[in-house]
Records
---
Amino acid sequence: MLSTDTIFAPASGFGRAAVAVIRISGGGTRFALETIAGGVPEPRRMSLRRLRDPETGSVLDEALVVFFPGPGSFTGEDGAELHIHGGAAVRAGVLRSLGRMPGCRAAEAGEFTRRAFLNGRMDLPAVEGLADLIDAQTEAQARQALRQLGGELGRQVESWREDLIGALADLEAALDFADEGDVPASLEARAGGAARRLAGEIEAVLRDSRRGERLREGFVVVLAGPPNAGKSSLLNALARRDAAIVSPVPGTTRDAIEVACDLGGLPVTFIDTAGLRETEDVVEREGIVRTRARLDQADAVLWLDPVDDPCPPPAGDPRYIHLRTKSDLSPAAGQDLRLSARTGDGIPELLDLLSRRAGDALGTGDALVTRERHRRALERCAEALRRAVDALAVDQGELAAEDVRLALRALGEITGRVDVEAVLDRLFAAFCIGK
Ligand SMILES: Nc1nc2c(c(=O)[nH]1)N(C=O)[C@@H](CNc1ccc(C(=O)N[C@@H](CCC(=O)O)C(=O)O)cc1)CN2
Ligand SMILES: Nc1nc2c(ncn2[C@@H]2O[C@H](COP(=O)(O)OP(=O)(O)OP(=O)(O)O)[C@@H](O)[C@H]2O)c(=O)[nH]1
Ligand SMILES: [Mg+2]
């Protein structure tokens, strides 16, 4: 697709609404406004305009129109917004009129943001943060996404990158001056120190990087135990709706059933599973295979067995929380956590416990790394830096320089910029090589 096209799309979703926003971006924006809105309004001010079908001259809507001149716009191009009435017919009329203009076409998914990235308005982490913000279901997820949209990860990676460019400049200069006594040794020492320090900083970030990924994806709680223990009943009580079938027949649940909840601002997904037992029923057996797969992904497992029919959980796995169900059936005994889906007894205590577990695993949204993509790139970066440090220790300057280049490329992948020009600029600026 040519980026010279002018693109348009509804920015406000598709349901019935009071107002719908149509977004336009590209070099044909002014022409489109002249054609459909009778002129280009004063930049960045909302103006009330009558929109007309350019072919028939008939009135499409009374709309609020905003013009954003490039390059100081969201995409970096000329852009506009038409705030129209939200009905399907009005929207269809405006979109049809825009589509008939030369050089104008409907935008592809994410195309406005893609242009913002290509025009240098956003780096990749900001693009990812924007996507996460739109998907965020809880406040903690939104907070994390906003920090990334605001450039926190991008700035940190850029700052590491600059330090590494300095180290690489030192290494390359040391190689250039290899025949000049003490100079190379001190440059190599400085580069080695920087590589060691950066590897340490990145490793520290990596140590708690899973919290950011978990917050993005949600904390996964699996309900498991013997058949008929009351797993589906508890799921329904937690979801406050009839999400799963409950029956007195053991082996009722076969497919895993997921319910996403907001636990005090934290995203938690509860998964009800088929009860575990030996069985000849092929459908039930497939259900149990699925239960085992879900248990592998769980951040916490609620192991349920009834007070009147005990079946203890596997020992030694810290993710398991043992809960005795149907507490209404027999008086309290022992120290197990007890609950009843029927009376609601014990459920507030369970939610408390899970909030604490989820809070510990997710943090409140101060993690820097939120995606596997970031984590993998940082892991490669830190490994390359450790190799560079080792190479310098045995006087292998060329190898060390190559590893630092690999580390730089890994960082560049995070922000979406991979170039060598900056290294050269830095090298020539820092050293007056007058020879
Ligand atoms: N109506 C409307 N609401 C919206 C957006 C939008 O595009 N339109 N946004 C879109 O996602 C978000 C706001 N984000 C935006 C980010 C940058 C610019 C922008 O034009 N930036 C220029 C000028 C900034 C200024 O006024 O000082 C710049 O950064 O140079 C606009 C919106 C959320 N709300
Ligand atoms: N008295 C009492 N009965 C309960 C309670 N919770 C569930 N039951 C009953 O126990 C039976 C089984 O409940 P389910 O929630 O379907 O059990 P399950 O663990 O999902 O069973 P499977 O899907 O077969 O593995 C049903 O008859 C429920 O009404 C409870 O707290 N107290
Ligand atoms: Mg069930």
---
Amino acid sequence: MKNISLNIDKVAGFVSKETIAAYEPQVKACMETLENGTGKGNDFLGWLHLPSSITAGHLADLKATAQVLRDNCEVVVVAGIGGSYLGARAVIEALSNSFQWLKAKQNGPVIVFAGHNIGEDYLFELTEYLKDKKFGVINISKSGTTTETALAFRLLKKQCEDQLGKEMAKKVIVAVTDAKKGAARVTADKEGYKTFIIPDNVGGRFSVLTPVGLLPIAVAGFDIEKLVEGARTMETVCGPATPFAENPAAVYAATRNELYKDGKKIEILVNFNPKLHYMNEWWKQLYGESEGKDGKGIYPSAVDFSTDLHSMGQWIQEGERTIFETVISIEKPEHTLQVPSDGENLDGLNFLAGKRVDEVNKMAELGTQLAHVDGGVPNMRLIVPELNEYYLGEIIYFFEKACGISGYLLGVNPFNQPGVEAYKKNMFALLNKPGYEEESKAIQARL
Ligand SMILES: O=P(O)(O)OC[C@H]1O[C@](O)(CO)[C@@H](O)[C@@H]1O
């Protein structure tokens, strides 16, 4: 079976292949640092060999719990934020029919998300929608104390208990959280919810292959065994036994670091398939939280093409030349749709008649690549044979491994995120959270 592959040919006009190849010893050292656990953040390396360590029993447990939710719920609310949200959403949206939620007949519970914002209207409208629904909740939080998620869960727990009664609520509320600490753990233990543990050594943004991602994905009806299988393959392909030039994670990490040194401060992740929108979002957190620190780091941004060619396309073609692109290119769509012929040809599109829509899309992709390279934008392509569970598993592990290597090449700790605490501290001070009295006084004086 083919694997995903990385093509860096269209970087050659900006940084030479020899320069990238010269990264081999450095990349090897970074990979050894990861393998030996001797680098910064080494207590968060649980993701490195996670795919190969997931047991059949664990997957069976997840599937059994998913089945309980599928059997008892019309809607399942997945509550979480950041790494406790984006991976599940990325995979579910990539695999779902784009119009599933509008169909009268569902093949399982409708999955909706909460806990990733503090929008009053969003939460109001969600609680309204749930009013006549049999719904369950997967409450996901590693720390168990994240305000956005905890606030949504407080509302959802109450509504679920009010509508279904405490006993039934217990059956359809599942917690994915720390083994011992945090309010989500305390609540789950007190209420007797089924729980799954997020391992201590797996950080949020690297946790999609733990129950954080696997449980919601299974509830949505997708094959988590295949997802893990794909990740396992990439664990080997991107592992230390693979020579540098054949290791896509090594080459990607080296190339983006060289481009960064060369003044390309912004990486744009691109797709030509709207189902990958949340994959962009997941990737942004992975690279943004991992590398953006100590006053450095490539700024990870993302676009959906060809949609955004009609908005951001101008900037990308002619704006400041500080960007490079990484395109996720899906080789084969799941369905076939041909452009029909039209006797009158009023729209002038008969030159496309008989062609598949995907052929048009592929020419948009190729035309864009050439135009952007001509415009001074280096371009890498991650070629993905098909959009299915297996290849999503490959994509996930590929990006995770490359991120670990890339962070070490950059010289940062890719596994912490101290910067995200600043807004929380201010918010708690402004809201007079107990324990923040001094900060409250100080912040009030600034207003
Ligand atoms: O799972 P938790 O602890 O609720 O955290 C959610 C997200 O919030 C962050 O900690 C940032 O505040 C992310 O790193 C994490 O993925």
